[in-house]
Write a structure and sequence with these properties.
With 572 residues, this protein is an alpha/beta fold. Helix content is 36%, strand content 21%. The protein contains 16 helices and 26 strands. Strands 3-2-1-4-7 form a five-stranded mixed β-sheet, with helices on both faces. Bound molecules: dinuclear copper ion.
Length: 572
């Protein structure tokens, strides 16, 4: 590949650099005051005339998974956590200097690298893959480790002659132990061994540069640490979203939202559903707390630490207890939830109407609700009126749901569950409100552009008020003489093709019945309040209020509109 690498060998006395394609290496004096920032600017000046795409750094200290985790002994401070990537403006890979030399010394097979310096570095390369080792701290003799003997302290304690003897023994032992084909020695003290054991060679310092180049070219580069931030960020966003959603559901930002919450039931089937939801939420919350807690504990307790050796922990296989536990516990949970769900389904869907039940047929249209009371002979739209039910003498309302066009879904959250409204199919559901009041609902199945404006209002009355409402609905349409002109406009335009109005020629079925139009609080299926201004705006240009609505603009003159609206507002 054409990638040009700048390799930097950081040492206690000099920083040496070489880049791909350059013949001469260059160096600059380092020393005990050199900070990483000073190193970067010195190197940048040094190689100002070189081209390179990426940087390899051989660092004289502990590097774990490409990160410097300990300050160097012979340089200035600030190396741990320094952002070399930003300082160079190029991708940077960092490796221990001995490991970089080992990488450069590799020429096939199984190779053991030993760095004889202050301490004892070790690494094995097999098939080009570098595996750092911690052989230095294994026990050797008299309770002391290999490093105690072969490190700088050992050299001082034993003297060069005895140190050499031990070095030869240790090198042969370790080579046999890791079944290496050959050993490469590096580090400042390697050359102090006068006679090398079999299959052992000195590493060339210049091999460090080859190692630096290989860090990018070969698969021997240590896996770079994955960035944790996006994951953490996503988790934070998710948690905040959940909290926001929970607050919105629990508190209800506005009256409307509260009136649409399944957590404030006011009807028998809605209570059953809320109980079921609470059970499922409780079980799920308990699982979440236990699993999330264990996860958080493990993340904190077993997080990466500077002194980690980077090795895999012991792997556990075939624990009968664990496998039984994680099979049986979910089985029991799912079984309990299945029983509870089944009971709720039978409770809600298996209910038989008592003799006092009210029957209502609701037909979904794009985008409004047709409401018929077959036994009472009442026809209305979008605003369902029902009696409150007294548990001692229940008067629930049983709903027959049909569709005139596409699939809709009937949903009044506080009164009951969702029930789809499907063409050529009759679905049934029921509500049994226990408190009078207004309950809001919404078409809950996307049914076209005005799906969001397909609202429902359910008025729950006392028995007496409900009877009064029925009686008013059964009155004939108003025929006030002073609006005869408006009625004539109505009867002479295409209104009559789609709308029905008792006592007139209008018998259309495509739009809402208008006989008692003014008894309704809203028009356009809850999208606007039922006022003279809104009626006028609606008749003039339906598309402006409810784009896509099937009602066409009638193109009436202003006078005709005035008369028509005057007529409509008498239809109490
Ligand atoms: Cu009807 Cu959505």
């Amino acid at each position: 590949m054409g990638m040009k690498i700048l390799t930097i060998d950081v040492g206690g006395t000099h920083v040496k650099v070489l880049a791909t394609g350059q013949k001469e290496r260059r160096e600059v004096v380092s020393g005990p005051t050199m900070t990483p920032g000073a190193m970067v600017s010195a190197v940048k000046k040094l190689v100002a005339d070189w081209e390179y795409d990426a940087v390899s750094i051989g660092y004289p200290g502990l590097v774990v998974h490409g990160k410097i985790v300990a300050e160097p002994k012979n340089l200035g401070r600030g190396w741990v956590g320094f952002n070399f990537h930003r300082a160079f403006g190029k991708p940077v890979r960092i490796i221990n200097d001995a490991a970089m030399q080992a990488l450069g010394s590799y020429h096939g097979g199984r190779m053991l690298f030993l760095g004889l310096g202050t301490g004892l570095g070790s690494a094995v390369i097999v098939k080009g893959v570098l595996e750092p080792m911690e052989l230095a701290h294994l026990p050797y003799r008299k309770g002391r480790t290999y490093e105690d003997y072969l490190g700088l302290r050992g050299l001082k304690r034993l003297g060069r002659k005895r140190w050499c003897r031990h070095a030869r023994v240790v090198i042969s032992q370790l080579r046999a132990a890791v079944e290496a084909d050959y050993v490469v020695l590096g580090g400042g003290n390697a050359k102090k061994i006068d006679v090398l054991p079999a299959k052992t060679v000195y590493g060339q310092n210049s091999n460090a540069f080859i190692g630096g180049f290989r860090l990018w070219r070969d698969k021997t580069a240590p896996a770079r640490r994955r960035r944790a931030r996006p994951v953490v960020g996503t988790a934070v966003v998710l948690v905040l979203a959940c909290l926001w959603g929970a607050t919105a559901l629990a508190a209800g930002g506005t009256d409307g939202a509260q009136n649409l919450s399944i957590f404030s039931p006011a009807s028998t089937p809605a209570y059953a559903i809320t109980r079921m939801a609470a059970l499922v939420l409780g079980v799920a919350a308990a699982i979440f707390v236990i699993v999330g807690g264990l996860l958080a504990y493990c993340v904190a307790r077993f997080r990466r630490r500077p002194d980690d050796d980077g090795r895999e922990p012991p792997q556990v296989y075939g624990s009968d207890q664990i496998e039984l536990a994680w099979t049986m516990v979910p089985f029991v949970i799912v079984f309990v939830l299945t029983l509870a769900t089944t009971r709720t389904i039978f409770e809600v869907q298996g209910a038989t109407p008592p003799p006092n039940a009210l029957n209502v047929t609701i037909v979904g249209h794009q985008w409004w609700w047709e409401i018929r009371y077959p036994e009472l002979g009442v026809l209305t739209a979008n605003e369902l009126h029902v009696p409150v039910s007294d548990p001692a003498n229940p008067t629930p309302t049983f709903l027959t749901l049909e569709s005139a066009d596409v699939i809709h879904s009937f949903w009044v959250p506080r009164l009951g569950g969702k029930m789809d409204v499907i063409p050529n199919r009759v679905n049934r559901t029921w509500i049994e409100p226990l408190e009078p009041g207004l309950y809001l609902g919404q078409c809950a199945e996307y049914c076209g552009t005005q799906h969001a404006h397909m609202l429902l209002r359910v008025y729950v009355h006392t028995a007496h008020d409900f009877e009064r409402w029925v009686a008013a609905q059964k009155q004939p349409a108003s025929r006030a003489a002073q609006v005869a002109a408006g009625r004539r406009v109505f009867e002479q335009t295409a209104c009559i093709n789609c709308h029905s109005l008792d006592g007139t020629v209008a018998t259309g079925r495509f739009g809402p019945d208008l006989t008692h139009l003014m008894s309704r609080d809203t028009i356009l299926a809850g999208a606007a309040r039922n006022t003279a201004e809104n009626l006028r705006a609606w008749i003039n240009n339906p598309d402006a209020l409810k784009p896509g609505a099937l009602m066409p603009a009638m193109k009436l003159g202003p006078e005709d509109v005035d008369q028509l609206v005057a007529y409509l507002t008498t239809l109490q």
